[in-house]
């Protein structure tokens, strides 16, 4: 069964006819050709596919596109502005919180959701807020440090929000 869906993706309205079983990850990567959102586990366990839906981080591999109808969806591609990285992306780079980069889009989107909800999280709240994201390359300390830098206002007061 197919259904029409309209949502805002990175500030631009999208109207598509989709199979009701199609995941938001499939729609973003295969139909809209935004490949920054990564496909990894396919079971909502690793966080590589994290996007924001109405400012809440979700695993797009297990979120149906039809559920995004009428909502605002943000991907990693929507984080840069006028060719410049967001403060979150800058903080990740400055704290060496990026290794191979595969998981980074999901971490960055989860960081944005966390800071939207709690602009000054404690270290424990940061760890809890990013717990749905997995990385095989880092020891997580640099990622936590990047978020701490943002929450202390060192990387800019808006933190890319």
- The amount of beta strand, in percent, is 15-25%
C-alpha geometry: globular
What's the overall average pLDDT, rounded?
Answer: 93
Question: Under CATH, the topology of the largest domain is which?
Answer: Ubiquitin-like (UB roll)
Overall helicity: 25-40%
User: Which superfamily, in CATH terms, is the homologous superfamily of the largest domain?
Assistant: Beta-grasp domain
The helix-strand sequence is: EEHEEEHHHH
Describe the main β-sheet briefly: 5 strands, mixed
CATH class of the largest domain: Alpha Beta
Low-confidence stretches: 155-161
Using the 3D structure, state the CATH architecture of the largest domain: Roll
Q: What is the total domain count?
A: 2
Tally of extended strands? 5
**Radius of gyration from the CA trace?**
15 Å
Report how far the terminal alpha carbons are from each other: 37 Å
Secondary structure category: alpha+beta
Quickly count the helices: 5
Strand line-up in the sheet with most strands: 2-1-5-3-4
């Amino acid at each position: 069964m197919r259904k029409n869906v309209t949502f805002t993706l990175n500030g631009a309205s999208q109207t598509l006819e989709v199979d009701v079983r199609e995941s938001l990850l499939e729609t973003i990567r295969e139909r809209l050709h935004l490949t920054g959102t990564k496909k990894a586990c396919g079971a909502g366990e690793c966080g590589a596919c994290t996007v924001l839906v109405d400012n809440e981080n979700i695993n797009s591999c297990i979120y149906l596109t039809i559920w995004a109808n009428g909502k605002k969806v943000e991907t990693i591609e929507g984080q840069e502005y006028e060719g410049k990285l967001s403060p979150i992306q800058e903080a990740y780079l400055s704290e060496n919180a990026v290794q191979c980069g595969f998981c980074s889009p999901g971490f960055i989107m989860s960081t944005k959701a966390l800071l939207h909800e709690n602009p000054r999280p404690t270290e424990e709240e940061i760890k809890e807020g990013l717990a749905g994201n997995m990385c095989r390359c880092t020891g997580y300390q640099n990622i936590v440090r990047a978020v701490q830098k943002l929450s202390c206002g060192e990387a800019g007061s808006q933190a890319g929000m």
